[in-house]
Amino acid sequence: MTTAVSSSAPLGNESIITGEAIELEVRPASGPLRALAGIIDAGLWVATGIFAMLMYTRFGPVLNPAQAQTLLILGIAALTFGIPFLIEWLTGGRSLGKTVVGIRVLREDGGPVRLRHVFVRALVGVVENWATFGALATVVSLANARGRRLGDLLAGTYCVRMRDVESDPYPLVLPPELTEWVRTADIAPIPSNLSNRARIFLTRSATMSPQARQTHAESLAAELEGFVSPPSPAGTHPERFMAAVLVRRRNEEYLSLLRHREAVR
């Protein structure tokens, strides 16, 4: 025997919403972890550079000066930008050093990084990691709470511990009575700050007083309504409305991620 779910009832624990199975209460990676990851990555690039220089020393003499200079420039560009960019893009925000210490790069709203985020991080990294030998990255990361370097600030990303990211103790559930509505609804791009606040609220709502919970739910739902058309069915509880919208957004992120993984295979 099944029990009908009322659209006017608040959400229970089954409605915890995350993007790409990401728990929202993740902790930013600590400075020492990021530093260790950077040292490991730098060691890999230095070893690769030494190997490349040995090959250049061996085969360089057979090239004319213009060819040798071009090869040298391409090699430096590959080591400082090209290879780090490709690795982080293909692995979804990881590198050898990050994988070893257990951290990963995410967007500010908790979603997986995209090509644009990785490109900005890699491009700025040429200056802050290589041109200044990591000094600029260190100073900037010490100046903000999440330990974000300049590339993170410009790209809208930050590093988190992977064991926090990959934990998802709750099933992802779309309120069943809103399935048909959210399937056909037109949902415009939602600002990262708003979607993140809605997700955090849903994870913490059970610990709030009933009055504060209702007030916050109505306020956030009112903000989200501006990005959704048509409105949800009359009488829908604001928490269930938020859950439906965020599940739809999460599903779209899943599909985008799957398409990306298929494209790089």
TrEMBL record:
<keyword id="KW-0812">Transmembrane</keyword>
<keyword id="KW-1133">Transmembrane helix</keyword>
<keyword id="KW-0472">Membrane</keyword>
<dbReference type="Pfam" id="PF06271">
    <property type="entry name" value="RDD"/>
</dbReference>
<feature type="transmembrane region" description="Helical">
    <location>
        <begin position="118"/>
        <end position="143"/>
    </location>
</feature>
<dbReference type="InterPro" id="IPR010432">
    <property type="entry name" value="RDD"/>
</dbReference>
<dbReference type="GO" id="GO:0016020">
    <property type="term" value="C:membrane"/>
</dbReference>
<feature type="domain" description="RDD">
    <location>
        <begin position="34"/>
        <end position="156"/>
    </location>
</feature>
<feature type="transmembrane region" description="Helical">
    <location>
        <begin position="35"/>
        <end position="56"/>
    </location>
</feature>
<protein>
    <recommendedName>
        <fullName>RDD domain-containing protein</fullName>
    </recommendedName>
</protein>
<feature type="transmembrane region" description="Helical">
    <location>
        <begin position="68"/>
        <end position="87"/>
    </location>
</feature>
